[in-house]
Amino acid sequence: VSSRYGDKVSTLCHRAVAWLLRLVRGGVCARRTHAFVFSSCTHGNVHSVLETFDLYADTHASAAIGPETGEVLDDVVKRVRPSRVLELGTHCGYSSVRVLRLLPPAGRLVTVELDPLTADLGEEIILVAGFKHAQFQVLTSSSAEVIPTLHSVLEPAQKSSDGFSLVLMDHDAQQFLPDLLALEEEELLCSSGCSVLLINRRQRAEDLREILDHVRVRPDCFCVKMERPCVVEIFYQKDKAGL
Ligand SMILES: C[S@@+](CC[C@H](N)C(=O)[O-])C[C@H]1O[C@@H](n2cnc3c(N)ncnc32)[C@H](O)[C@@H]1O
């Protein structure tokens, strides 16, 4: 019994150390990326901000989706023309800036970041790129905690809203399915159509297996619209006739 107890304690310790390392490394990565972009880009110039991120990523480890996946994201934003976008996983704001620059004048981005310091750094970069708080909101929270509160963030003055027509998930692959289900449960996915982009960081099919298996057994409201090694697009529509 005591050896089993010891094993459990040791597993917990390993997990705690791994979590701390992820937190510290993540913080360092965000601070370095932010410092480089902030000091090297032309403030107020979106293209310069994105170019500076890409320049940084040429020589350093970077959490930003980068130009290749960024172009896939751009194509989806141009096709969907969303008025409300939800991003899970802000980091330093690279993908937020990519999305914001393509939104219509009335479009809004809500972006969620778990780590408070990273959220502040990301928000600053979005402002440096020239966007205003009327166009975006950074929420510091875990996706699971924030989703049930999003109705009030979307349309504070109204009881109901159309929900998000684009969701970008680039936070934690293990959260993709629970968060998708929570968004559906809360009726936060636009019923007339919502594209959900899943960023497959490790480009491993098994990382997305759970969510794709779920989607494929529900053809009444989901379909897989695009499947690339680094990004998968799921399309949600409540009314099957439109699929
Ligand atoms: C890969 S980075 C996002 C990169 C960003 N999309 C870009 O292209 O610049 C993932 C971010 O998600 C955050 N994150 C991880 N799990 C999360 C969760 N459950 N809820 C919200 N944010 C989370 C991490 O702190 C990290 O900053």
From TrEMBL:
<dbReference type="GO" id="GO:0032502">
    <property type="term" value="P:developmental process"/>
</dbReference>
<keyword id="KW-0489">Methyltransferase</keyword>
<dbReference type="Pfam" id="PF01596">
    <property type="entry name" value="Methyltransf_3"/>
</dbReference>
<dbReference type="GO" id="GO:0042424">
    <property type="term" value="P:catecholamine catabolic process"/>
</dbReference>
<keyword id="KW-0531">Neurotransmitter degradation</keyword>
<dbReference type="InterPro" id="IPR002935">
    <property type="entry name" value="SAM_O-MeTrfase"/>
</dbReference>
<protein>
    <recommendedName>
        <fullName>catechol O-methyltransferase</fullName>
        <ecNumber>2.1.1.6</ecNumber>
    </recommendedName>
</protein>
<keyword id="KW-0732">Signal</keyword>
<dbReference type="GO" id="GO:0032259">
    <property type="term" value="P:methylation"/>
</dbReference>
<dbReference type="GO" id="GO:0042417">
    <property type="term" value="P:dopamine metabolic process"/>
</dbReference>
<keyword id="KW-0808">Transferase</keyword>
<dbReference type="GO" id="GO:0016206">
    <property type="term" value="F:catechol O-methyltransferase activity"/>
</dbReference>
<keyword id="KW-0128">Catecholamine metabolism</keyword>
<keyword id="KW-0949">S-adenosyl-L-methionine</keyword>
